[in-house]
Amino acid sequence: PAARSGLVALAESPAPGLRTFGVLGLAALGDKRSAPLIQRVLVASDAGSLPRAAAAFAAGQLGLTQQALELSELSNAPDPLLASTALVALARLGAASADERVAQKLLSEDAELRPASRAAALVLATGAYRRKGPLFPIPAGELDVASVLLGLLPDAYAAEAERSALARLSSALEASARAAVRSSPEGARAVADALSSDAGRIPFSSLLVLSAKDPAARKEAELLAQKIALETVPSFASLAEHPSAKVRSFALGFLSGQSAPDAVRALVTAVNDQDPTVQRAVLASLTPAHAAAAESLASLAEGQDWGLRAAAVEALGRIVSRGEPALAVAALIRVAANDETALVREAALNALAKAAPALARAPLERARDTDPEPHVRKTARALLQTGAAPSR
What we know:
Layout: H1 2-11, H2 16-29, H3 35-43, H4 49-62, H5 68-74, H6 80-92, H7 98-106, H8 114-126, H9 145-150, H10 159-183, H11 185-195, H12 215-239, H13 245-255, H14 261-270, H15 276-285, H16 294-300, H17 306-319, H18 326-338, H19 342-355, H20 357-370, H21 374-385
Helix pairs in contact: 1-2, 2-4, 3-4, 4-6, 5-6, 6-8, 7-8, 7-10, 8-10, 10-11, 10-12, 11-12, 11-13, 12-13, 13-15, 15-17, 16-17, 16-18, 17-18, 17-19, 18-19, 18-20, 19-20, 19-21, 20-21
């Protein structure tokens, strides 16, 4: 047909824009006789990103399974548009490497790849490429080649497809997360972000867009996120000893939400981190699970920096449960009576009253009656009135 010969001529043009539209036109015709030409454009490293992205789309559109290896490699291309188009095409072909590649991109630190990663995941889950409108809608203004290619991402899926994609990719996501956390701090940060449920987010939010408020989807996502978090704790614990304070800080922030022994040990060790910002963040995150930090905290509570002493006594209060560890309670009693700074004594009284009310009354009565600072005496009096157990 005349249309095909004209499109072939465009696809062989040295002009990247014309070549792109020629390849897209051949894909729209659905004629597999164009496969050799599309293959040449796809593998031509000097063809430019736009024609190669068009060839990637064409490979998916025409079902050119023989191009799966090249598409898999191009899904890691530095150009986001080429990588995105190749990833979706790989999913359309149902290639053996598709699940792994899509999972990797869903956990990627490159935010530009996330829409294509979601689209590819939905293609895998449904086995279908679905769009809401025509393949090539009539442009409202100037025709832009990159916008045309971006507009080819499939987008006509229901929330159920997202849950199916999460279930299908669960094993691949686990493997990709383990590899990403081991690979670099940036990879670990991207995984931590993907698993996060902070501020009401649903884990894997880049995939679960339509089902973000579905309780069943949230439960499934949280269970998978918890499983991956547990598997990656050892790698995050290693990052908690990284030379960079920023890396240590974010790794310890992730570990503070985990109860695995490696996570607990990392937080206890980081109580003595040499960076003040990291150290204070760690102190603020301690819980009764970190009772092993009592000795270090007691030592910090007697240091020279009054601000750090105050943070240490607050942390001592948070690690106490049912009057244990006794070392922590004794340190709070000692600081409440003897610290030279009124604000630190007051912090110790507050921590003691909250953590061990049965043991707090005598120190509170002593502070009420003998502390030299009026505001400390006032605090002790108020705490006695609101619930410290009677002394014996």
